[in-house]
Amino acid sequence: MIEAHGLTRKFGDFTAVADVSFALSEGEIVGILGPNGAGKTTTIRMITGFLPPSSGRVTLGGRDLFGGSPDAIAVRRDLGYLPESVALYPEMRVEEYLAYRARLEGLDRTSSRRRLGEVLERCLLADVRRQVIGTLSKGYRQRVGLAGAILHDPKVLILDEPTVGLDPKQIVAIRELIRELGEKHTLLLSTHILPEVELLCGRVLIFDRGRIVAEGSPDELRERLQGQVAVKVEFELPAEGMTEALERVAGVHTVRALGPDTGPSGRFALECAPGADPRPAIFRLAVERSWVLIELTSERASLEDVFVRLTTRDAEEPVPDQQAAGEAA
Amino acid sequence: MKGAMAVFGRELRAYFFSPLAYVILTFFVLVQGYYFALIVAFLSDPRAAPGRPLELFFGQTIFTWLVLIFAGTFLSMRLISEELRSGTIETLLTSPISETQVVLGKYFAALAFYLFLWAPTLAYVAIVRWFTPVDWGPIAASYLGVVGIGALFLAVGVFASATSKNQMVAAVVTFFCLMVLFSCGLLENIVNGEIAKKVLGQMNLWQHMDDFSKGIVDTRRLIYYASGVGFFLFLTSRALAAKKWR
After folding, report:
1. Residue A296: in which H helix or E strand, if any?
2. Can you list the residues of chain B whose pLDDT is less than 50?
3. Domain of residue A88, residue span
4. Global pTM?
5. Within a domain: residue A166?
6. How far apart are the CA of B93 and the nearest CA of chain A, in angstroms?
7. Staple partner for A90: which of A117, A134, A304, B208, CB 3.0–4.6 Å?
8. B245 vs A52, A91, A103: nearest CB
9. What is the distance between the terminal CA atoms of chain A, rounded to a whole angstrom?
10. How many domains does chain B contain in total?
């Protein structure tokens, strides 16, 4: 449906997004996940046709989104976009604003009126339709933005952090709405809230420092990390050869000593092969060597672990400030 | 052009909803009214040389220019910079309409409001007509001049507005450009080069307005305004497109 081919975007010397490619097939709900400054918004701005890429291209239904030709402009009709800032005109009334958006999208009067009614209903805005946007709460404004994005019934819907800054009740309402929309539209959702992705998306792209560092369904990603930080062992006292002995246990990939910097400790984190459970073997090992075992736990990796794992960087490395680059633009 | 119409409609409404527009409208009417009253009082004095009040109103004095330059600046400064600041530009430029349509919609909304500003001055024409027969030619020519020069000034303002997300910066840039545009014609009298004198003479807006107020319509001047408008609107749409590239 929508495809990004080798998207790269530079702001001066700073590369915000480097060689990002992905494709969304029809009806899919895909999440873009990443820490602040990972290039999520820049990528989204490129695939909505707002920000031209330094190199690479975007196609929607096989048609190019850039190039300035009348066709490139017409392609945008298939796209609904809710920007991160959800900027609206504060002096307009809700229905006035939506009617304006409908005219921009080129809807005729009858279909505009019909869609307006549907969308107001859908986004639970019917009771504020006559209200001035500037007086609405953040949650309502978010819904007005969303209503504007789906007004022309686009094939692809792109939402940049749709639940940011909302209270928990509003978040639930917006998520519910997004889930409903996902039944009819191809949907791309950017967020840094993990449960949101697990809840809504069939597939996740994890961004870090302008690249896609992992891709897959939430389950696949969890699976991939399942074998990693999986077992924690603690012995009462440290002893010679513990690390080596643990490394020899079947299914254990690596052994990392945890705990006090002051000296050796009896605490270890084991990364294990997917599906392997070395806990019985570790227990037997402890008995054999008469090491006193005080903790032996298996941790099922959450998507959070995957995320932290993939996007953690050394503290010394400067964090690229995408926001600042965006300001400069 | 449907997109341009949508932008035009929204922008024109936005004028009528913004307090700034009413402040401008109020001051415009106040200043023009006061100034018209002054002219009438002056001409009513037996010692004054005979003259036509409307000719004085449109030409020959600095007042018209103050009004034109301030109106040009204040009406245009918000147009695009506000969208850049608030971020609404993002939804606007991802809609299926071109930058040119955005620019045209906004420009013509500003022009329409500008015409609306001048509408109350028709009352002065009516007042003068009440007391004395008037020559309609010079009056029509004067309005043509006011509209032409205003159209040019607004185009400069729209362009400046597309260069910054700060309205004040846009206003200062516009004001400066309009001062240059206005005063470069006045340099006619202090240069000696024959060609320079001729070029500056053609651009002398003061002279243009003076002539309009006497009923002289020179089509070269109208073409000057029209091409200026075209040039600045083209630059604006390029500036808007370039915003995305940086």
Report:
1. strand A293-298
2. none
3. 2-223
4. 0.81
5. yes
6. 6
7. A134
8. A52
9. 29
10. 1
